[in-house]
Write a structure and sequence with these properties.
Distance between the termini of chain B: 52 Å
Strand content of chain B: 25-35%
Number of helices of chain A: 10
CATH superfamily of chain A: MetI-like
Strand order of the largest sheet of chain B: 8-9-10-5-11-12
Oligomer: heterodimer
Largest sheet of chain A: none
Number of strands of chain A: 1
Radius of gyration of chain A: 24 Å
Radius of gyration of chain B: 19 Å
Number of strands of chain B: 12
Low-confidence stretches of chain B: none
Number of domains of chain A: 1
Helix content of chain A: over 70%
Order of helices and strands of chain A: EHHHHHHHHHH
Largest interface: A-B, 36 and 50 residues
Bound molecules: adenosine-5'-diphosphate, magnesium ion
Mean pLDDT of chain B: 93
CATH topology of chain A: MetI-like fold
Order of helices and strands of chain B: EEEEEHEEEHHHEHEHEEH
CATH architecture of chain A: Orthogonal Bundle
């Protein structure tokens, strides 16, 4: 008897998503942040100094580039008067509404699409097409259909986040270990429990990674939308101050956005760590 | 008396598009794995199964577990045709199959959880089985924080927590180092002596097969049939050094004798397959 087996190579998933490797987990979040700070600080200070000195020395036009100290003073005033807090609150609310809506729709849909290949095949083409349509290009459509109010802003943030979440949920579901599914099946796991106790937890690291990308694009999309059509929010603040040539207010807005972005990123990374806390090999016992 | 009966079991897989297999010059997309397996296993028996790798041992266990449908023939447990996973059958895998996001305790609880056992009761039971395997103090560790031997102990504890009548084990110790393997074999026997559940244990180690078994089942190369069943008449409880006895040595010779032709047949197949591949 002679025998040959031909096997076409395995298909890798498009994003090639894998969980964080063990090695990168070793230093604690705190010490990591600290060392980034000490190494990165000189460059940051130099940049701040340049920002302060250049307009004062007349190297650049102080009307377009007010010195940092003036920007900070304005920022302080805006914080104290409560205006800034109001704008921040409104922008965050819009981003959060769109993002939460995206989670509520994308995660269940992604679980189904990842699990049932027919479902995915049927919708894949549509998803790919929509995914490659920019949310900014669609803003006029949203405004046309939903009006200039909150709904169109929520729609754009929803659209910005939903595909990151959807695709990463699908990838997460597909990355579920077939052996775990087999073991669960052998223990009499029902279809519902398979989703709840096996597939979904397997997909969480990927979903959380998608959420991290989604939150950021949600926030940036709402800022852009506010620049184009709004009477409130950080985007409006930046755009309106620019039109009024109140450049110190404009920079205060930009700086606020940067700080929010940094904080958000830090929170999301910490959240991602928490979601995959079990994936550590800190110490292993004897045999 | 009889617990598991497998009769005339055949299993043919249809390969995925793009895969073909050539047998005796005929190319096909179907692969015959089990070719009329007959086997009857009694209550409380410890059966080990040896056979060349790729012969279909795992597929046989999958059919008994109700995870794979046979192409023809049937497997029964207590006279009932197995068509889906049986509540009193447990399965242990070579790669442990622990949920990485659950602690040791939560992993053992899982099997009881999906059966709807109340929290307090299943926690107590899970704790009991972990302690039985010497894992006191490791309840809250995640699998990634446990050694291979400990992970497999957790997996076996999980399997036993549901009080199974049939315990299927697919090369459970194959990934462990020799010492850990010896220890786990003895632990498994010690616990099995107490519960006397019916065990079907697949291994590629002849020593392991003889040391554990009441009967060793030798499978042929694929497509697999039962080639020979060898009764192991060594007294229980067995100590590890039974492996140095003359009787054990004789069994070793007999099993190897039976297995040798099948292994070389399987090797010829693989050699051919790889020469074609080049
Ligand atoms: N789902 C499947 N589809 C196609 N072939 C399979 C499938 N499962 C197992 N096989 C084939 O069946 C044969 C026996 O596999 P297996 O039972 O895993 O062997 P082993 O005796 O080493 O446990 C192998 O050649 C394997 O390629
Ligand atoms: Mg196998």
């Amino acid at each position: 008897m002679s025998l040959t087996i031909d096997q076409s190579p395995p298909i890798r998933n498009a994003l090639g998503f894998r969980r964080r490797s063990k090695a990168t987990k070793a230093p604690t979040a705190l010490s990591e942040t600290f060392s980034t700070l000490t190494i990165g600080l000189p460059a940051l200070i130099a940049f701040a100094l340049l920002w302060e000195v250049a307009p004062r020395a007349g190297w650049i036009n102080a009307l377009f580039f007010p010195p940092l100290s003036r920007v900070l003073a304005t920022l302080w005033e805006m914080i104290m008067s409560g205006q800034l807090g109001e704008h921040i609150g409104i922008s965050l609310q819009r981003a959060a509404a769109g993002f939460v809506l995206a989670v509520v729709i994308a995660v269940p849909l992604g679980l189904l699409m990842g699990r049932y290949s027919l479902f995915e095949k049927a919708s894949d083409f549509l998803v790919q097409t929509l995914r490659n349509t920019s949310q900014f290009a669609l803003l006029p459509v949203f405004i046309l259909v939903l009006g200039i109010g909150e709904a169109s802003k929520i729609a754009i943030t929803f659209y910005a986040a939903v595909f990151f979440l959807l695709i990463n949920t699908i990838v997460g579901v597909k990355s579920a270990d077939p052996l775990l599914i087999k073991a669960a099946r052998s223990m009499g796991t029902s279809d519902w429990n398979m989703f709840k106790k096996v597939i979904f937890p397997s997909a969480i690291p990927s979903i959380v990674a998608g959420a991290r990308l989604g939150v950021k694009t949600s926030l940036f999309s709402v800022i852009a939308a506010e620049m184009l059509a709004a009477q409130s929010g950080i985007g409006y603040l930046i755009q309106h101050s620019s039109l009024m040539l109140e450049t110190d207010r404009m920079y205060a807005g930009i700086l606020t956005l940067t700080i929010i972005g940094l904080l958000l990123n830090y929170l999301l990374v910490a959240g991602e760590r928490r979601a995959t806390h079990w994936h550590s090999s800190a110490d292993s016992g004897p045999n | 008396m009889e617990r598991i009966a497998v009769s005339e079991l055949r299993k043919t897989f249809t390969l995925k598009p793009g895969q073909t297999i050539t047998v005796d010059g005929i190319t096909s997309n179907r692969i015959a794995v089990l070719d009329g397996v007959d086997l009857t296993i009694n209550r409380g028996e410890f059966i080990t199964v040896v056979g060349p790798s790729g012969s279909g041992k795992s597929v046989l266990l999958d059919v008994i577990a109700g995870l794979t449908e046979a192409t023809s023939g049937i497997a029964t447990i207590d006279g009932l045709h197995v068509t889906k996973p049986h509540a009193r059958t447990a399965y242990v895998f070579q790669q442990y199959a622990l949920f990485p996001w659950r602690t040791a305790l939560q992993n053992v609880e899982y099997a009881l959880e999906v059966r709807g056992v109340a929290t307090a009761e299943r926690r107590e039971k899970a704790r009991y089985f972990l302690h039985l395997f010497g894992l006191k103090g490791f309840e809250d560790r995640f699998p990634s924080q446990l050694s291979g031997g400990m992970q497999q102990r957790v997996a076996i504890a999980r399997a036993l927590s549901t009080d199974p009548q049939v315990l299927l084990m697919d090369e459970p110790f194959a990934a462990l180092d020799a010492q850990t393997r010896d220890i786990l074999q003895s632990e498994l026997l010690r616990i099995w002596e107490q519960i006397k559940t019916t065990v079907v244990f697949v291994t590629h180690s002849i020593d392991e097969a003889i040391y554990l078994a009441d009967r060793v089942v030798v499978m042929t190369a694929r497509p697999a049939r039962v080639k020979e069943i060898i009764d192991i008449d060594l007294s229980r409880p067995r100590e590890l050094d039974v492996r140095n006895s003359d009787a054990f040595n004789t069994y070793r010779g007999r099993v190897w004798e039976s297995l040798r032709d099948e292994v070389s047949k399987a090797q010829r197949d693989w050699a051919l397959a790889s020469s074609y591949a080049n």
